[in-house]
Amino acid sequence: MENPVELETDVAIVGGGLVGLSLSLALARAGLDCVVVDLDDPVAKADDAFDGRGSAIALGSARVLQAIGLWPLLARHAEPILDIRVSDGDSQMFLHYDHRELGSDPFGYIIENRHTRRALYARLAQEPRVRLVAPDSAAEVTADAAAAHVRLASGGTIAARLVVACDGRPSPTRKAAGIGALRWEYAQHAIVCAISHEKPHRGIANERFLPAGPFAVLPLPDAPDGTHLSSIVWTERAELARMFVELPEDEFADEIHERFGWGLGRIALASRRWCYPLVFVQAERATGPRLVLAGDALHGIHPIAGQGLNLGLRDVAALAEVLADSSRLGLDIGAADTLERYARWRGVDTVGLSAVTDGLLRLFSNDIAPLKLARDVGLAVVDRIAPLKRVFMRDAMGTLGKLPRLMKGEPL
């Protein structure tokens, strides 16, 4: 941690979350110096107790984490996703993905966020090209023909060839740059926690669509004492979510059984409960003068498909490749044409996935009989058409389409 008077660097990253820190390590691997400015105290963030909040990491995203040196620190905390089961309420028709239909690799992994943060901080401590300025914030970002300038709330300044905004969905950096965003609030909150259960999950990720929103049960590694654990991501109507969070633990477990059944045996709460509003954000553009957006500052989507962090890690892989290639050619990494290559590359993916997740939510978050019948038939049809199903499975693994080198397991 530093509180500088003045720093010069290649890239200044505003926001030290999972995406911002991952980007700094990827750029360091490409020979670029970075300064990361984060509002939170990293000591406090690294000391989080078990809280049940995890992220789905697709196979392609896991390759990014491997490439930046995190995987040796994460492997024992990562639970492979071997099967994915998608159902519409209590319908007998469902969609089942089995990883063995594509080979031996899992679809991805569920990793508790605290382990990813700790791994990132551990790698940062060994990376001389990355400096972390925290706790601090960017009070002002300006740009001229030669550089971008970040004035810090602490009074220091950073001069960089490029600024990357990774400061979340509200993104003060995006707003200050005059970049608008399409934004709306869903009438839903997400309830997130961990549960213990009697029977092993066998690496199966379940997502059940209910009228109030999707209800996901995601596999976590067993506790050291052998207790079976899973993560819950429960989308609920905003007016009811807080009530459920405040229920006694046994009544809360009963509500989970009501929605998911008894397939895992008796369920009990294994962490604190988190509840937060769900907001959609899509920036109107990805770049500004010597500025580029990544992660939730560029796109914030509904957790219906568990793709939020994966989308951010695809930003990391694409931006790192564009900047690394430009730097090796002696080009200006902050020039408009350099940044436009990133914007074009990420544009179709980010807008497309944002539209798909929002459309799926609106299609499934109701109990209208004709729509329910059409949904159930659709799930069953996809389940029975092997070539189409394999396309969807590769998409879930993050191995479909034009992939950056890091997502293919190749060095920058």
Q: What value does the average pLDDT take?
A: 89
- Count the domains: 1
CATH superfamily: FAD/NAD(P)-binding domain
Helix tally equals 12
Kindly identify the CATH topology: FAD/NAD(P)-binding domain
Helix proportion of residues, in percent?
Answer: 25-40%
CA gyration radius, whole angstroms:
21 Å
Q: Write down the CATH class.
A: Alpha Beta
Helix/strand/pairing category? alpha+beta
C-alpha termini separation:
27 Å
Number of DSSP strand runs: 20
Quaternary state reads single chain
Show unreliable segments.
Answer: none
Biggest β-sheet: count, sense, barrel? 9 strands, mixed
CATH architectural grouping = 3-Layer(bba) Sandwich
Strand content: 25-35%
What is the molecular shape?
globular
Structure in words:
It contains twelve helices and 20 strands. Strands 5, 6, 12, 13, 14, 15, 16, 17 and 20 form a nine-stranded mixed β-sheet that branches. Strands 1, 2, 8, 9, 10, 11, 18 and 19 form an eight-stranded mixed β-sheet that branches. Helix 1 packs parallel to helix 5, helix 1 packs parallel to helix 9 (308-328) and helix 9 (308-328) runs antiparallel to helix 10 (336-364). It has one domain (6-183, 279-408): FAD/NAD(P)-binding domain, CATH 3.50.50.60. The chain has helices spanning 18-29, 42-46, 59-67, 71-74, 113-124, 172-176, 238-245, 249-260, 308-328, 336-364, 369-384, 386-397; strands at residues 6-14, 34-37, 54-58, 78-81, 83-88, 94-98, 108-112, 130-133, 138-143, 148-152, 157-165, 181-197, 204-210, 213-219, 228-237, 267-269, 274-283, 287-288, 291-293, 299-300. 35% of the residues lie in helices and 30% in strands. The radius of gyration is 21 Å and the shape is globular.
